[in-house]
Amino acid sequence: MKLLSFILLFISSSCFALSGDEFDQQYRHLNGELNKAVINNMIYSRDYDDKEVPLSEKLESKSKWCDLTKARVNLLDFVIQNFSAYKTWVKQNNLDDDSNLDDFNKFHNNQQKSYIGCQLNLEEYRLKM
């Protein structure tokens, strides 16, 4: 059943390309989520080596770091899945971007590994509490 669901999801996402406006709207939404995660990461940033910082604050800081990494992964997923729409959007907005799909895939893999590591580290902090 899971395989059938995956196949249907893959086919439906492949068959229905996003319009320029739909791409723009979703890209801006995901970019907004990324910006929010960056700000939260800055607000809640703590020194993990500082013995005076409570473990709960370190946990919150690590959680915000994971949120930031996940927001990057989500945006990269979206761009990779809609790469031709992304390139069209870049041209329409007169942006300078000579990256290719391989560049995005490499960065995505890097960020995905970082997110997994962050989640594991977060679990370690939770176990200390």
End-to-end separation in angstroms reads 39 Å
Beta-strand portion reads under 5%
How many individual helices? 5
Largest sheet: none
Order of helices and strands: HHHHH
Question: What count of structural domains?
Answer: 1
Structure description:
It is a single chain. The protein is mainly alpha-helical and 129 residues long. It has one domain (20-128). The protein has five helices and no strands. The longest helix is centred in the last third of the chain and has 28 residues, at 101-128. The radius of gyration is 18 Å and the shape is elongated. The model is unreliable at 2-12 (pLDDT under 50).
Quick recap of the structure?
By secondary structure, the protein is mainly alpha-helical.
Structure keywords:
5 helices; 80% helix; DUF1311 domain-containing protein; elongated; 129 residues; mainly alpha; signal
List the topology elements.
Elements: H1 2-15, H2 20-43, H3 55-81, H4 83-92, H5 101-128
Helix pairs in contact: 2-3, 3-5
